[in-house]
Amino acid sequence: MTLHPAPPPIPAASYDWTNDEDLSSCLSNEGSQPRLVVVSNRVADLSASVQSGGLAVGLADAIRQQGGMWFGWDGKREGQTGGPMQVSEHGSVTCVGIPISPEDFTEYYAEYANGLLWPLFHYRLDLVHISTNAFEGYLRVNEAFARQLMPMLQPDDTIWIHDYHLIPLAGILRRLGCRQKIGFFLHIPFPPPELLSATPDHDALIEGLLAYDLLGFQTHTDVNNLKSYLAAHKPDAVVGQDVIRTGQKRLRVGRFPIGIDAAEFGKLARETSPEALLAKTPVETPALQRILGVDRLDYSKGLPERFKAFDELLLSHPELGKHVNFVQITPPSRGEVDAYADIRAELEQLAGAINGRFADIDWTPLQHICRPLPRDLIAPLMRHSHIGFVTPLRDGMNLVAKEYVAAQDPDDPGVLILSQFAGAAEEMQEALIVNPYDTDDMAKQLYRGLTMPLEERRARHAALLSRVTDFGAKEWAAAFLKELARSI
Predict the structure, then answer these.
(1) Which helix (H) or strand (E) holds 185?
(2) What is the distance between the terminal CA atoms of the chain, rounded to a whole angstrom?
(3) Which tens digit of pLDDT belongs to each residue from 271-299?
(4) Angle, CA of 213, 214 and 220, to the nearest 5°
(5) pLDDT over 90 for what percent of the chain?
(6) What's the mean pLDDT in 172-198?
(7) What is the distance between the alpha carbons of residues 408 and 384, in angstroms, rounded to a whole number?
(8) Interval 215-239: pLDDT, tens
(9) Number of neighbouring beta carbons within 10 Å of residue 483
(10) CA–CA separation, 229 vs 363, rounded Å?
(11) Handedness of CA 15, 20, 25, 27 (dihedral sign)
(12) What CA–CA distance (Å, rounded) separates 433 from 445?
C-alpha cells in the first residue's frame, strides 16, 4: 500500500540499538531530569524487592531514577470510579491508585478492554463482542483517570501512558489543558486496518493515539499496521518513516521491543540446584527430556495447537516413550470472559486424551499445571528443561521466550521453539521458528530440538543470550524516554 509522501527531513527519531554511544547516552543521568509520571491500568507494587516482568522492572528503575508518580487503578471494584485515592510513598516515587465502580469495571475492563480490544488486537475477530454501552464505559473511566491525574501534574512532567486500556487518555488530558509531553506504549500487537475497522469505534481510537507525542510499539509489523491504517482511513495524514503529521500536530512513532532483566533472571535460575528442583517437581528421571511451556491461560497463546503437536510427536516417534515429557504451566486469567472457560475445558480434554493414549504406570507424558508457580521455581525449571515451547498465535512480544534463554546453562543449553507470530521472533531468529497453526511442523521441530547436537545448541543460544542481555528492560525504558524527550 502506497503511503503519503514524507515530510521535509527532520532529525531521525529511531533509536539505534546497535550503537554503543547511543545506548550509553540513554542510560546516563546527566543534568536535571523532569519528573516521570507513569500511568497504567494497574499500579505496580513498588514495595516488592524484586519486580516480576519486563514492564515492572524497566519502569520501576526509570521512575526511581528520575523520581515521579505511578498512577492507575488500585484493583478495587467499589464505590464510584475515581473515588478516594490510595497514596503510598516509595522513596522518590509516589504511587496513586483509584477505585473503579463495579459498573465501570464491567463496561471498561471486562466488556471493552478485554471483550473487544484484546481479541481484536490479537487478530481474533471471531471472539470480538461489541456491546452497546462498553465504549461509553471505556471513555468514562479514561475521563475519570484524566480528571484525577490532572491536578497532580507539574509543568515539566514527562507522562508515559501504557497499553490498550488507556488509548484515549492523552486526548482527554489535552482537552483539560495538559501541555506536557505524553508518550504511549502498546504492549500487545496492533492489528492491520482491515481488522481494526471491524470495531465501530476505530476512528475514535486512532484519534486518541494521534494526541500523543510519541507512540511506541513492539514490532515493525505493528508500526506498519498503524501507517497502513492512516493511509487507508486518514487521507489528511502525512506519514514519514518516524513522524506522522495531521494538521498542525506532529508526533513520532517507533519500535521499542521490550526486554527483561536477564542477569537477575539468570541468577534466579542458578540459585536452585538440580537436586532441590527435582525434589520439588517430581517430573524428571535421569533419561527424561523435558519440554516446558509457561503461559497465562489465554486463547492467544496457541495452547491447544501445542498439545496437538506434542501428541503428533509421540505418534511419529514411539521410541520417545518414557524418555520425554511436556510440562505446561497455565495460570488462569480473566475468568469473567467465557472464552477462557472454553479454552480451559478444551485443554483438560486434550491432556486427558494424550495421557490416556500414551501414559504408563511410571510415566506421565503431559503434565498440565493450572495454577501460578513462583518465579524462583519457574526459573530453575526453565534451566533444566531441554525445550522452551513458546508458540502463541499472536503476541506483542512474549517475555517467556527471553526468560527461557536467560535461564539456560551456556555450556549445555536447551532449545527455544518460537512462534513466527510472537513479537520476539523479529529479534530471536536463532530460535527454531515455527508456524503455530501447523502442528505437524511443530512436532518435527520438537524432535529436531530434542536431538540437536550440542555445538549447534551452544551457537544458537550464544547469539540469543547476547541479544537478550544487551537490550533488556532498563534499556527499553531508557530508549523510549530519550525519544520522548526529543519529541517536538
Answers:
(1) strand 181-185
(2) 28
(3) 876 555 554 444 444 468 999 999 999 99
(4) 150
(5) 75
(6) 97
(7) 8
(8) 999 999 999 999 999 999 998 999 9
(9) 22
(10) 52
(11) positive
(12) 9
Per DSSP, the residues of 343-402 read HHHHHHHHHHHHHHHH-BTTB-SEEEE-S---HHHHHHHHHT-SEEEE--SSBS--HHHH
Contact 399, 258 (CB under 8 A): yes
**H/E run at residue 409:** none
In whole angstroms, give the CA distance from residue 288 to residue 320: 9
Domains of the chain: 20-26+33-259+473-485 (3.40.50.2000), 262-470 (3.40.50.2000)
Residue 334 has what pLDDT?
A: 61
Question: What confidence tier does 58 reach under pLDDT thresholds 50, 70, 90?
Answer: low
pLDDT in tens, 127-172: 999 998 999 999 999 999 999 999 999 999 999 999 999 999 999 9
Amino acid at 37: V
Give the pLDDT score at 31: 45
Q: What type of residue is 2?
A: T
Residues designated as active site = 187, 395
Residues with Cβ < 8 Å from 258, sequence gap 6 or more? Answer: 54, 55, 58, 187, 218, 397, 399, 473, 476
DSSP per position, 240-281: -SSEEEETTEEEEEEE------HHHHHHHHHHS-HHHHHHH-
Look up residue 10 and give its three cell numbers. Answer: 527532520
- C-alpha cell at position 321: 516413550
Q: For the chain, what's the residue count?
A: 488
